[in-house]
């Protein structure tokens, strides 16, 4: 098929801004339809297109963010909520929740009957709104979280940026995605750097003064982090939402008090939210560990301590931090290590060592832990946690205490004491 240069430029510009594209003319729509039929393009949402080769390299959460950024440019007054807001905040959760690229919107009328496939409305009136701002910094796209809705000129600024910056031919996605893109990029620090507006500040004051308007690629209105967590907590199972709560607390996006204030304002059942707050812990280092802990709790076992540090008795300078630990009343010390596949295959986690070297290092670590007083070491991977039964069998074999046997094993997280010590292995 003949190359359509205008469509190619549209694709290039969209990819450089980490979003999909929407054909704005009949000619572009016809060209997009033709390339959709031959497989060159995909259409993940109504009126939203992307190159198949580009789309296939995105994970489900990033696909959702691409769709949301595109829709936000088309409909700047929409406020994204629920799982869509969680994706924009880069909270941690199981990607299986993204079922069919559904987009969630805040709506005063709830899930309207006339909504087409792919859109779900969450009933709320005057929800607290935040804005995720993306802007260019060199070759990367950076993020900031703003309190309040975007300025009225947000779409104008984003459009100006799209016209002024074109992606060079041959530039790959890695050139525009920051290597350090984490939820921490969204953490507010002060009003001059993050755009968090103090009382009395108008919307036009929200954009940080150190960001040029032409560098802004998009500004996406979402429900506040606290409201987002409450909506997700009322929608999805405990084990799926605990990673969201852990990651939000870990990255300073929200406080327990803010979540409680949202619960007070919605006048609805929030028992599940209270349970999530009871167990949420910012010491959890990633979503896999949070999910594993949720399954332990759901299976009736005692809540473990997180990130406990042991000192090697033969080498006092060598310290080892473990994922989970139980100190039992009969003097046993049980450690559970959650092994994600990346632990053995991701170069950033293996320090470019071979699998054999990594496994050998783990054996030395286990020997050191036993010298430090650990009596039992359990290892569990993602498949065992998802299957639940293999995990439960290992916990039973290790005689991990049950929560109901002794009240001391059922405790809430003390956020004032959740500090991770450094210099550990």
Q: What are the main properties of this structure?
A:
single chain, 425 residues, alpha+beta, 4-stranded mixed β-sheet, 3-stranded antiparallel β-sheet, 11 strands, elongated
Distance between the termini: 55 Å
Mean pLDDT score: 81
Poorly predicted parts: 154-185, 187-205, 342-353, 416-425
Give the beta-strand count: 11
Please give a structural write-up.
With 425 residues, this protein is of the alpha+beta class. Helix content is 37%, strand content 17%. The strands form four sheets. It has a four-stranded mixed sheet, sandwiched between helices. Helix 8 packs antiparallel against helix 9 and helix 9 packs across helix 12. The longest helix is centred in the C-terminal third of the chain and has 17 residues.
Describe the secondary structure blueprint for this structure.
Layout: H1 5-16, H2 26-37, E1 41-45, E2 48-51, H3 52-55, H4 60-74, H5 82-88, E3 103-107, E4 119-123, E5 129-137, E6 140-147, H6 154-164, H7 191-194, E7 216-223, H8 225-233, H9 238-250, H10 256-266, H11 271-279, H12 287-298, E8 305-311, E9 319-327, E10 333-339, H13 342-345, H14 347-350, H15 355-371, E11 376-381, H16 382-387, H17 389-397
Parallel strand pairs: 3-4, 10-11
Antiparallel strand pairs: 1-2, 5-6, 5-7, 8-9, 9-10
Helix pairs in contact: 5-8, 8-9, 8-10, 9-11, 9-12
What is the compact description of this entry?
Helix content is about 35%, strand content about 15%.
């Amino acid at each position: 098929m003949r190359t359509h240069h205008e469509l190619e430029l549209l694709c290039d510009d969209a990819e450089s801004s980490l979003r999909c594209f929407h054909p704005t003319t009949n000619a572009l729509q016809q060209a997009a339809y033709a390339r959709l039929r031959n497989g060159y393009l995909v259409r993940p949402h109504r009126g939203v297109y992307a190159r198949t080769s580009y789309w296939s390299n995105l994970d489900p959460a990033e696909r959702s963010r691409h769709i949301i950024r595109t829709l936000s440019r088309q409909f700047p007054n929409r406020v994204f909520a629920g799982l869509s807001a969680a994706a924009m905040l880069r909270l941690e959760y199981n990607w299986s929740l993204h079922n069919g690229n559904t987009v969630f919107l805040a709506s005063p009328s709830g899930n309207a009957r006339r909504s087409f496939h792919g859109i779900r409305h969450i009933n709320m009136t005057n929800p607290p709104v935040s804005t995720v701002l993306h802007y260019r910094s060199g070759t990367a796209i950076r993020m900031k979280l703003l309190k309040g809705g975007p300025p009225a000129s947000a779409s104008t600024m984003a459009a100006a940026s799209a016209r002024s910056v074109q992606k060079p031919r041959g530039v790959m996605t890695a050139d525009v995605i920051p290597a350090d893109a984490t939820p921490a990029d969204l953490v507010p620090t002060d009003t001059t750097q993050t755009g968090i507006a103090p009382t009395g500040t108008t919307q036009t004051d929200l954009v940080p003064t150190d960001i040029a308007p032409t560098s802004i690629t998009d500004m996406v209105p979402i429900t506040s982090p606290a409201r987002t967590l409450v909506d997700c907590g009322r929608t999805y199972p405990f084990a799926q939402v605990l990673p969201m709560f852990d990651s939000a607390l870990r990255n300073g996006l929200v406080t327990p008090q803010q979540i409680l204030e949202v619960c007070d304002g919605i006048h609805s059942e929030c028992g599940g939210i209270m349970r999530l707050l009871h167990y949420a812990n910012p010491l959890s280092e990633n979503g896999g560990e949070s999910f594993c802990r949720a399954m332990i709790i759901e299976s009736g076992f005692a809540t473990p301590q997180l990130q406990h540090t042991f000192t090697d008795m033969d080498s006092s300078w060598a310290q080892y931090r473990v994922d989970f630990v139980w100190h039992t009343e009969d003097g046993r010390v049980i450690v559970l290590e959650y092994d994600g596949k990346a632990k053995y295959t991701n170069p950033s986690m293996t320090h470019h060592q071979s699998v054999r070297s990594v496994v050998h290092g783990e054996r030395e670590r286990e020997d050191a832990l036993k010298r430090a007083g650990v009596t039992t070491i359990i290892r569990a991977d993602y498949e065992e946690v998802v299957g639940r039964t293999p995990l439960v069998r290992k916990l039973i074999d290790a005689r991990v205490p049950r929560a109901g046997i002794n009240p001391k094993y059922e405790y809430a997280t003390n956020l004032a004491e959740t500090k991770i010590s450094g210099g550990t292995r």
